[in-house]
Amino acid sequence: MTGDRDVGVVIVAAGEGTRTGGEELKQFRWVAGKPMLLHSVQEFQRRTDVAMVVCVLPRRYAGDPPPWLFQCDLDRLLTSVGGRSRGESVVNGLDDLPDEVRIVLVHDAARPLVDADTIDRVIAEARRGHGAIAGLPVTDTLKEAAEDGHIVRTVDRAGLWRAQTPQGFPRHMLEQAYASANADRISATDDASLCERLGFPVVIVRGSERAFKITEEGDFMRAEALYALSK
What we know:
The protein is α/β, with parallel strands linked by helices.
């Protein structure tokens, strides 16, 4: 870590989906001993180089967040209002970061068990002046199939990775990528693709199986098991 607090973190937690079941928002549900969002906030705030963590929340929670969120370092915590898309939410979080932030990490709240080593690797590459994302190499055989389920072809998995978060960038790079995407009305499922679109260099670093994305109900049990194994 550097001696400067020049890293800003935007945690995207604005989703209203409830695919995991129940009425409570997924990012607020408890997993591995605490609310999902709280895992990520506290992990990033353990770093001395993090100047601010911005949690982008649904509009109805941005001004009145859950009380457990105040267990964090309030001097380094802001809430921002989610947009109509993931991209709008990221831009809202970017706009709220203080001026001293030079490196920006974007992280999905649905990946609560991200580890410190992965964050280290992403930030180290972003400090070298290019984008960086966490990821894991594809190990399964990949098949392309038609809508009726018939296999069209086997896809060569060599060089293929599963993208994770955090994704880190020099601030000016990410801001330029989003400004261009908004001007051209282009959306993307991750931040790196918008930087790639402009020809900015982006590298991939080793992520972690712990940092998988909680999407369905069964994923909560998997997260509990992985958390227990780390203890």
